[in-house]
Design a protein that fits this description.
Elements: E1 8-16, H1 24-27, E2 36-43, H2 48-57, H3 62-66, H4 72-87, E3 93-97, E4 103-104, E5 107-108, H5 111-126, E6 130-133
Helix pairs in contact: 2-5
Length: about 140
């Protein structure tokens, strides 16, 4: 990216599963006048538990390394996400829960992942990061 040498000023993390009804943050470039904005997509409810744990204490859960379906770039991006949100002030971090196949008017579709979603929401609130639930 052209702004790779600029200081990080904000991070947007879009949470979604399956397809998104409004992939705003990954379709439109996120720009800041004085720095750069990192944008991440957390795809799939199976990442909630890992993300909760990593964001609660800054460590990458060991189970993430063993997941066969995660390639090296996914693991690298996960580590970068944890790093980026950890170095910014809370008001510079947004977790965007996108309206998608699994989070919609009916709530979290997967009943067994609803508890994990609420745990993640609690961690995000405790860290005072902004969360957006909208459509």
């Amino acid at each position: 990216p052209e702004d790779v040498d600029k200081p990080l000023v904000a991070t947007v993390v879009s949470m979604r599963s399956s397809f998104s009804y409004d992939p705003l943050f990954d379709e439109l470039p996120q720009k800041a006048p004085t720095g750069r904005v990192s944008v991440y997509i957390v795809e799939g409810e199976e990442m909630f538990e890992f993300l909760s744990s990593a964001l609660a204490d800054g460590s990458i859960p060991s189970g993430l390394c063993d997941e066969e379906d995660l390639d090296h770039s996914t693991f690298r991006n996960f580590r970068l996400l944890v790093r980026d949100v950890g170095i910014l002030e809370p008001e510079c971090v947004l977790f965007n829960w996108e309206c998608c196949a699994h989070f919609n008017d009916f709530g979290f579709i997967s009943k067994n992942k609803t508890v994990e979603a609420y745990k993640l929401i609690q961690v995000l609130l405790e860290r005072k990061w902004m969360q957006m639930f909208s459509d």
